[in-house]
Amino acid sequence: MPIPLNPDQQHIVEHRDGPALVIAGAGSGKTRVVTQRVAHLIHSGVPASSILLLTFTNKAAREMALRAARQQGVEPDQQKILNGTFHSMASRFLRRSAKMLHYENQFSILDASDSRDLIRAAIAEKIGKPGRNFPKPSVLSSVFSLAFNRNCTRESVMQSNYVKRHFNLNELISLEYPHLENYLEELLLILGRYREKKRASQSMDFDDLLENWLELLLKYGEGLSLKKQLQYILVDEYQDTNHI
């Protein structure tokens, strides 16, 4: 039996339509409330396949879907709750429609180590052997990712404004990495080459997954398709998301 809920928690579980934002401290039962809300929706007749459950690890998402299924007294494989991380969902949908973006559906996903290796190769191709004070690939990977997350917006994707969402490094470096200001020109060259190498190798890093999924949703009809499929989207640990 699930642990009894207090009145505020029960109100969230039973909330039906429209957005709801739950703000509560650590250990207050937010994850349990999300899980019981999923179970309540299914019990109320909402098809499991029309629920999307997002959190920050695939393991946590699977466990939440499993608990929701058990609360309904059914085997997990009988439920079709769509669950995972933002990145795993992006990968799932991109593998169905990547050709719209001129990728093969079996594109590769770069982990942090792969990204560093590709940036290292881009450095070698664009500036040769860097000086001892030149930023390491791991630093550049963080800089490029932060630039993407700060600059990629719905508007820039709709306008295909590649420059706006990837090359606006001046302000970022001035505020966050002032010690790199003397390397700005080289960083732009390396970032451009890094992007080219990813595309040539049919690869996406974690930021590309989000960007390309957003582009599919906004520009190629995938958003309307997903809107028809899904009735409810639930996000655990929502405070850790960004505007993308």
Q: Can you characterise this structure?
A:
The protein is mostly helical. Helix content is 55%, strand content 6%. The chain has helices spanning 7-14, 30-43, 58-71, 86-97, 112-127, 137-151, 154-158, 162-166, 170-176, 184-200, 206-219, 222-229; strands at 51-54, 82-84, 108-109, 203-204, 232-235. The strands form two sheets. The protein has a three-stranded parallel beta sheet with strand order 2-1-5, sandwiched between helices. It has a two-stranded parallel sheet with strand order 3-4. α5 packs across α6 (137-151) and α11 packs across α12. The longest helix has 17 residues, at 184-200. The relative contact order is 0.14.
The count of DSSP E runs of length 2 or more, i.e. the number of strands, is: 5
CATH class wording of the largest domain: Alpha Beta
Strands of the widest sheet, in order across it, are: 2-1-5
Which regions contain 5 or more consecutive residues with pLDDT less than 50? Answer: 161-167
Number of domains: 2
| Count of helical regions | 12
Can you name the CATH architecture of the largest domain? 3-Layer(aba) Sandwich
Silhouette: elongated
Q: Topology as H/E string?
A: HHEHEHEHHHHHHEHHE
| Assigned CATH superfamily of the largest domain | P-loop containing nucleotide triphosphate hydrolases
